[in-house]
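Section: Multi-chain targets

For targets with more than one molecule, the full set of components is provided together so that the structure can be written out for the assembly as a whole rather than chain by chain. Components appear in the order listed by the source. The example entry contains two components.
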Amino acid sequence: MKRDAFDTWSLAELDAVESTLDAFVPVDAPAGLGEAMRYGVLDGGKRLRPLLVLAASNAVGGRRAAALRAACAVELIHAYSLVHDDLPCMDDDVLRRGKPTVHVRFGVAQAMLAGDAMQALAFEVLTPDDGSVDPALQARLCALLARAAGGAGMAGGQAIDLASVGHPLDEHALSDMHRRKTGALLRASVLMGAACGTTDERGWRALSDYGSAVGLAFQVVDDILDVTQPSATLGKTAGKDHVHNKPTYVTVLGLDAARAHAETLRRAAHAALDTSGIADTEQLRELADRVVERDS
Amino acid sequence: MKRDAFDTWSLAELDAVESTLDAFVPVDAPAGLGEAMRYGVLDGGKRLRPLLVLAASNAVGGRRAAALRAACAVELIHAYSLVHDDLPCMDDDVLRRGKPTVHVRFGVAQAMLAGDAMQALAFEVLTPDDGSVDPALQARLCALLARAAGGAGMAGGQAIDLASVGHPLDEHALSDMHRRKTGALLRASVLMGAACGTTDERGWRALSDYGSAVGLAFQVVDDILDVTQPSATLGKTAGKDHVHNKPTYVTVLGLDAARAHAETLRRAAHAALDTSGIADTEQLRELADRVVERDS
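Its structure, encoded as tokens over all components, is:
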């Protein structure tokens, strides 16, 4: 795919996601809650997960209304996890997406409630009663998202993260943590997009493999950027893994081997697409490249 | 309904809910997360919400497998809200269901993650892929639960609660807060049970009215018990509304008028059942009585 064509597509999709999220996240949730929720999810972030949903849906001829809702739901889960992750009891971070974190702006209790409400909203977004999404697909999307967000997925990964501070992990344990903490939701993004259309078992398995590889690559690159980029570029506090004495791919593998590992995962993602039997995987292929080549 | 028959039914159902929750809440969620989740939801609580789900489902000939899952999902949402509500940034409470609260036992960060994972698990429980629950019903149950848990419901009510500390509320504002904070999930319990079977529009509306009345009655009685019962009876810290300078039905109406209000709501709940056109509402009727007559 021409990079220009990808940029045109992704910019248009980012606009669509932003305005759809803007419509979904309530202005009128009471006592400032809506304001905190909107602050936590609107106007920020790379929106990688929504783009994975939409690219996967496009690859399999997915239904647009469902895919757009799935894209917003996944981003709501991601955004809520950041709000909670930044709280004083977790990473205690003050900067996110170039702005003060939600609890710095709205207080710790409101930030926790906003995160809680964003998780509920994700499932609300997936279950419209306006006939726009087939009920069986609604159920399938809720199933994929709930499993990725919960104890076996993202929340479980964060529990390992919490317990790992100051403990050396080997590469296997580190991968297990990240497959859950960030990988599960990135993989679910691909599969939720795929669920919006039609795939055979081979295609589904290939997209699952693609999602796993991209998910892990994302984290490896995150660990690299944490030590090679300043906070201003990242829009969040750089070097914090080091400060918190957290194991990362850089501390476990070294910087060069971490870079080589990211390349290996990019190739694995491409190889999965090659075996998928799905005709048009160019957007997904380009997304894997962007994940590895990004500098913020 | 004979009280003995109700007790026999409800005891059997409490056993069924407990063993189903025990099977759903993962032993093996990593790094202690599963242990914290299980501590937060198993072996405690009155299980009023599950009983409302099951009684409503029985009234409309609902499917057992779906109703039992709905009962567990609602209880998971309720239990997660207690875990988060007890955190130092919220009510900072140390006693719940007669035991140390989750964060006292497992730490603040793990308690927050356990609550997060319990919310996700609720939606996981509603979306089995084993054919036991029709996908359209799965979607309907997710829709009802997400709306009750989120910004317009429970989380929104907690935001009002947070903002209300030290501020006098009139009865209208107090009711609005409680309709969201506790009422939305209690009403959703009734409607999720109803969704498991067949109701006409009149029946649905009546059950919704019943759920609203029981939900508000529950809170009025909670406020009464907070000032009339010792902590040992309640299994949680008594008198804490007063300590936190929170408006309650007792502070707004006075104790006698609060008791009269609970009776009015009980009659409203019964009246809604009378107009429902549903033949067997005895379990629901008895549940309304128990909510008002309880002493803990």
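Strands of chain B lie at 95-96, 99-100.
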